[in-house]
Design brief:
single chain; mainly alpha; Four Helix Bundle (Hemerythrin (Met), subunit A); 6 helices; 2 strands; globular
Length: 201
């Protein structure tokens, strides 16, 4: 029975991702702003299941093909979905994004994920171990903290009737996420280049 718990947690995270995105999809600034806090809570719970299902899968030796496929999918859906929603028109107030996240930032973040996924697929198909690097894990942690923090700061911005400190903090966080996300992709590219040279030698 316990062998199925990690997969159940992964499915719960996928459901949580859908709920998280749905909540932000129906929210608009100035209306039901507490929904931002609810969304942040849903996101945090989903991230907790991410840490928990991996720990339990390793502890109980319950790593499965389902988990190997669906676990990273669930991660990408909720994190990338979170940034897409933060860049949606609902967060634009008086011509600026109070979430701090602009559409071009989301393009950069998604491009990095697609690049690393493509590199990993090619390398592992050629028998090269391409596990996540420390920088990749740190990137995931930062993104997972940035999204609920941006929602809370957005709520504070709206509750304070437009105090620019909160939106300014969000912009700083968004820039930090973009910088770390891009930087975290560099080790994967360099590893791929070195591995390719070794394979062709």
């Amino acid at each position: 029975m316990k062998q199925h718990i990690p997969n159940a947690l992964t499915l719960a995270r996928l459901f949580g991702a859908g709920l998280f995105i749905a909540l932000l999809a129906v929210w608009s600034a100035g209306e039901n702003d507490t929904m931002l806090l609810v969304s942040a809570g849903v996101f945090i719970l989903a991230v907790i299941t991410d840490a928990l299902d991996g720990f339990l899968a390793r502890k109980w030796d319950a790593v499965s093909m389902f988990g190997r496929v669906m676990d990273p999918l669930a991660d990408k859906v909720i994190v990338l979905g979170g940034f897409v929603m933060l860049a949606s028109p609902a967060f634009e107030v008086e011509g600026r994004m109070i979430s701090g996240v602009y559409s071009w930032m989301v393009v950069v973040i998604i491009a990095r994920e697609l690049l690393v996924t493509a590199i990993r697929s090619v390398m592992e198909a050629r028998g090269v171990d391409f596990s996540a690097s420390l920088t990749g894990k740190l990137k995931m942690v930062l993104q997972s903290v940035a999204i609920p923090l941006a929602l809370v700061l957005t709520w504070l911005h709206l509750e304070s009737e437009g105090d620019s400190w909160y939106s300014g903090a969000n912009l700083g966080i968004a820039w930090a996420v973009v910088g770390v996300t891009v930087a975290s992709g560099i080790p994967y590219v360099t590893r791929a280049i070195r591995a390719s040279k070794q394979l062709t030698d």
